Amino acid sequence: MSQEAPFHCRFITMNYIDAGPSWRAVPHTHPFWELVYIREGKQSVAFPDHAGLELTGGANEIFLYPPNCYHFEYNPASVPLHTVYIGFTTDALPAEAPCLVSDSTLRIHTLLRWLEEAAGSFFPRQTDLCYAITTMIVAAVKHFRDCAGEETAAPPFIERIRRYIRENPHLPHSTSSLARFVNLSRYHFIHLYKLHAGISPMRDVRRIRLELAARKLLTEKVSIREVAIQVGLPELSHFSRSFKKQFGISPSRFRRNAEGRSLRR
Questions:
Q1: For residues 88 and 11, is the Cβ–Cβ distance under 8 A?
Q2: What are the strands, taking DSSP E only, across the chain?
Q3: How many CB atoms lie within 10 A of CB 184?
Q4: Distance (Å, rounded) from C-alpha 165 to C-alpha 7?
Q5: Is 75 helix (H, G, I), strand (E, B) or coil?
Q6: How much of the chain, in percent, has pLDDT values that exceed 70?
Q7: How much is the pLDDT for 265?
Q8: If you classify domain 9-146 with CATH, what class do you get?
Q9: What does the pLDDT look like over 123-134, one tens digit per residue?
């Protein structure tokens, strides 16, 4: 089996956008590649130098801009927008037009979480680890982009379910209730969800709840117990175990360390 020649990536920066419905960025360029991952909401991007190209993406979709690409982003929706973006250099991607790809398997979502942890800590060979994870992210994006015409897009009901969970994390969600919400039998709902999302419905519910909890711990001055209740995990010990399993740190330590972390939103 033939193998492609290895490629090189260099991690430069990582940051976040938490924007309201009226947010609009100033037109700008970067001398490096930029990857923008939409965690919640929608984002539109205009590219004046590419024949008026404009792309709009939703949750778990990725914008990729080549170096020196003139663009500006804005929030086209009436709900908040939450994105994470990284800057990097690489010789793996051709400097073509910007594009939008889907992270239907949540592979890049996971890699970005790893990069967050590495970039926000200080330890020997930290830079090497950030470069390695960035290389994995670029390889995954390259695969998704190259195979975009061959892969089947996730059906709309998956994002509908995710939006419903984000807006109602406190409800007692189950596979049966979620299947009814999208008018599918429980069997077909579970099968289709795992097929297209790469994760079971209830694991996705837990992921979304814990990500909402992490955001609340960083941005809201309420108790950890209240956060747990708000995101639908009212048993505090279970919430704490699940949070630590997801993020590798307890909720209380996560909150204490928030001010000192370079990952602060």
A1: yes
A2: 9-19, 33-40, 43-47, 53-57, 61-65, 72-74, 81-90, 99-102
A3: 16
A4: 39
A5: coil
A6: 90
A7: 37
A8: mainly beta
A9: 778 888 888 899
